[in-house]
């Protein structure tokens, strides 16, 4: 009888890079990859949070290097990849997570704000993938995970620019996956639903800014979970970490945009 190979969720001996890893989903994914055995490069625009994240990974018993990067700037991304090569000699897993959000109706949105969101969320993913490919191609092996969103599958009012950037990530991911499919490299998009990070919580987060008159930020957060999500409750950074570990292991899943959103999207 043909032996069925087991899929081992071990990343022991692997090197992973996560952008925007200083907090939120990026930090959660970095910790999950480390728990599965990987050494980490944690890169963030904010070098202080990147260093704190690296300390957290080292406390788990793994090597971790903190880098400052602006994913929207080609020189900065190129320097980050040079540093990865210098510290670890190669790259097995890349999670392009850094992202920004803002609210604005199309009728009022400035071109500057459109460009700012597209620059980090869409151009940043392109620049990172292009740079990471050089290291992965050298070994004919790699796993790239681009963080998109449910807003990359469905449009939301006030988020047209953000949705456009995340639809771009999904289209880019599918096309890029096909370009490198014969080189041992997989490329997938992970689409979070609603996760209570700084992007959503607090007065400056989406639940603060989408408050109804008389509603507290916490009440707005509860309302958005129950009204938007079929399961009625938010996802966690650990949920995102689980799928990232799976995608970092799976050899034959590529070009996909997989949502972890409690049943919201297709
Ligand atoms: N939180 C959610 O519910 C949710 C839902 C869908 C998608 N996402 C996506 O998940 C990713 C992470 O979101 P989050 O909720 O953890 O956000 P967050 O704001 O909590 O963290 C984002 C991190 O990215 C870093 N960053 C921002 N701009 C950067 C740049 N130019 N270069 C490098 N680093 C930069 C920030 O310093 C921060 O540490 C984003 O791409 C976001 O669009 C989040």
TrEMBL record:
Where does the Ketoreductase domain start and stop, copy by copy?
A: 14-203
Q: Identify the stretch annotated as signal peptide in this record.
A: none
Q: Which SUPFAM superfamilies match?
A: NAD(P)-binding Rossmann-fold domains
Looking up InterPro entries in the UniProt record yields: KR_dom (IPR057326), NAD(P)-bd_dom_sf (IPR036291), Sc_DH/Rdtase_CS (IPR020904), SDR_fam (IPR002347)
- Look up the coiled coil feature and give its residue ranges: none
Give the highest taxon in the source lineage. Answer: Bacteria
PROSITE patterns from the entry? ADH_SHORT
Q: Output the Gene Ontology terms for molecular function.
A: oxidoreductase activity, acting on the CH-OH group of donors, NAD or NADP as acceptor
Report the record's Gene Ontology biological process terms. Answer: fatty acid elongation
Concerning its family, UniProt says: Belongs to the short-chain dehydrogenases/reductases (SDR) family.
Q: What is this protein called?
A: Meso-butanediol dehydrogenase / (S,S)-butanediol dehydrogenase / diacetyl reductase
Q: Origin organism of this chain?
A: Azotobacter beijerinckii
